[in-house]
Amino acid sequence: VMTRLVDQLKPANQFRLVLPVFFQQGKLFCGCSFPCNSKKQQYTVVVLINPGNFQYKLVQFLHCVRQAAQGGESEVVDGFHMAEQLRREDPEAFNILSSLRVDFTDSGADYCDFSVQSKNHIIDVDSEGRVTRINYNNATRDSVLDMPVHQVQPFYSSLKAFVELLSRPENVFTYRMEPGDLVTFDNWRLLHGRKSYLSRGQNSRHLEGAYLDWDEVMSRFRILRKAVRGDS
């Protein structure tokens, strides 16, 4: 029986503020198979390699409604762990990716017209040098580099070193979602993708997703902790 995320996402509904998205009507988005005239990567059947998110401070939910008959395995990488590994193995590359800002852009027309722009480090760190966010998405990273020409080659070399870390088999966790499965993760930390798959008729792959803001999540966490522990 096909069920929708709006019926299954009880944890997210408890937060009340499931966020709307501009690429799907309402508060849910669909990762379905639309290989022709697709505006977004998740609507295609080709391999989707570890996209991050550059737009929101979000917790993401993904619910499997229907899995492809062949392929479509999910792949995830711990971006924070990879950043720390890069810091150890190639400190110069880490410093470049955490100091140079690059442009990200995403525009088109799905549920509505949209044109999203952002300028970020690939690796964000706080005042004490701790990694706080990964901004990596080749599909939305702008082809124009707004930086001095002498920094271009070092940037690409540093990005290549980081991508090679992300792609090492020992750093990638692969799993297959089955109908009814629901996963949730920190969209600023976990880089997520999937393998290519075959989509035929009733065997087309169908995932639905939703986003929550971390502020809302932590608010609910504090309320539940108070209820359980009796904290003042």
Strand fraction equals 25-35%
Q: What would CATH call the architecture? A: 4-Layer Sandwich
CATH topology (fold) name = Double-stranded beta-helix
Poorly predicted parts: 34-38
- Biggest sheet details: 4 strands, antiparallel
Order of secondary-structure elements: HHEEEEHHEEEEHEEEEEH
Globular, elongated, flat, extended or rod-shaped: what is the shape? globular
| C-alpha end-to-end distance | 45 Å
Q: Regarding CATH, which class?
A: Alpha Beta
How many structural domains does the protein architecture include?
1
Instruction: Please identify which CATH superfamily we are dealing with.
Output: Clavaminate synthase-like
Briefly characterize the structure.
The protein has 232 residues and is an alpha+beta fold. Helices cover 25% and strands 29% of the residues.
Task: Give a structural overview.
The chain is α+β, with helices and mostly antiparallel strands and 232 residues long. The chain has a single domain, classed as Double-stranded beta-helix (4-Layer Sandwich), CATH 3.60.130.10. Helices cover 25% and strands 29% of the residues. The protein contains 6 helices and 13 strands. The strands form 5 sheets. A 4-stranded antiparallel beta sheet has the order 1-13-2-10. Strand 5 (101-109) and strand 6 (113-121) form a beta hairpin. 26% of the residues are buried.
